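Hi F.,

I've been meaning to write this up properly since the lab meeting, where we talked about keeping a consistent format for the predictions we share between groups. The idea is simple: the sequence comes first, exactly as it goes in, then the structure tokens exactly as they come out, then a line or two of notes. No screenshots and no reformatting. I'm using this chain as the first example so we have something concrete to point to.
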Amino acid sequence: MTKASDLFIECLEEEGVEYVFGVPGEENLDFLDSLSRSDSIRLILTRHEQGAGFMAATYGRHTGKAGVCLATLGPGATNFVTAAAYAQLGGMPMMMITGQKPIKKSKQGRFQILDVVDMMRPITKYTHQLASSDNIPSRVREAFRLAEEEKPGAVHLELPEDIADEHTDSRPLTPSHVRRPHADEKSVRVAVKRIEAARAPVLVIGAGANRKMTSRMLLQLIEKTGIPFVTTQLGKGVIDETHPRFLGCAALSSGDFVHRALGNADLIINVGHDVIEKPPFFMQQGGTEVIHVSTKTAEVDPVYFPQIEVIGDIANAIWQIKEDLVSSGTWNFDSMLAARGAENEHRDSMCSDMRFPIFPACLVRNIREAMPADGIICLDNGVYKIWFARNYPARQPNTVLLDNALATMGAGLPSAMASAMVYPGRKVMAICGDGGFMMNSQEMETAVRLKLNIVVLILNDNSYGMIRWKQANMGFEDWGLTYGNPDFVKYAESYGAHGHRVTSAEMVPELLSHCLSTDGVHLIDCPIDYADNDRILNKEIKELSAAL
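Output, unedited:
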């Protein structure tokens, strides 16, 4: 007979779990004791459950394996809610484990007791209270299966105290061997015939394409046919964005150069589309036709109703299309590539602005030049996300981690920490607004304690800059969105990190190089000037692209 909490750990070991991120409580002590004896799973103690959840989700995003996080009942579990939604909407496999009071005999009345399973139901793929130790192996296996299959997402298991202390003769289940089904060859043939008949087809690469092997197959298709491609924000890096056929990232909702390029297409091949993201284009009745290539059939809404669907493993579907497709001599991509050329010209015209506080376009250029091709930037959420999505060419998959699904603040630092753990030999930078950074800044202590090598760049404007930009765009008075900040350099040093402050645009390249090449946790306080956001992002870009 095996103690239930020991069996739970054995099940996690069978699933190949490396880390459990979290903040344990009284109701997790059996689980914690069992975890202490594991030879293969490491506890990563964080300073807030939200940080643990963001780290687990990012681990899942990088590896395809469910990241695991732990919290107690009540307030510990409620602190997981944002991270659960982050993983669920963003397609990141993650398992949450929460404790609970005994369910067979009350010890403390209703103290701290919430219906956590019901709370998690709308924001997870699966949630379950373990009411018998005999069922632990099957419930753990089912949770991992659902978390990791397409579309990946969040799952939750609740382990009550009295169940954790039970004994059982159940044993862990071995994960099954499974492969996603291939797309039907007849649907592939229909898609290929339509592509060959098109005048100007274009690829739009979305979140679902950011998976194993898909990059390779898409690159082969592009190289064979010359069809240009656009990415969504969650599709950045699937193909190297320095490729001559890259047309840009759909960071703004409309009116950008990339939308001008899409408007010149007569067929859109939409790969890995996820309705969670802001639409990279808006379909209209009688407008440009769309081929939907994904693991799931299209979720139809007023601006998305594709005419052809190719459903199955995306990498295999693209391979089948590539093998069957014959490049057409009538395709013409000149107007699309001209739109991209105009965007590059506009972007480059801004990069010599050496003002202080720092001009965003100049900073993006500095960071791209400082980061190696496999370097990872993890963006929190703010107006700078638009600048990086548009102007920072991603070279490899999952090297630009931004959240265009839940779009939550507070995830940048924990995401960078998890990235540094998964890829300890790569350069990792968290890019946060001052508002987002302060939402989980306590995890600086965790990063220092874990001896991680990361750079934390804070774009400091003493305000909630994204909302301030929207406020100006809507013609409202500038009000209610400014605040004061601590001395970030001293704040970093109080945790044992290295603090740096930008005092001129000229010093940025050398400072970035120093921090990226020096071990430890480095924080850079960088004053940022968003004064031209409204002029450039809302007016200038739209006017220039419309004039093409």
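Notes:
The mean pLDDT is 95.
The CA atoms of residues 262 and 282 lie 10 Å apart.

If this format works for you, I'll send the rest the same way.

G.
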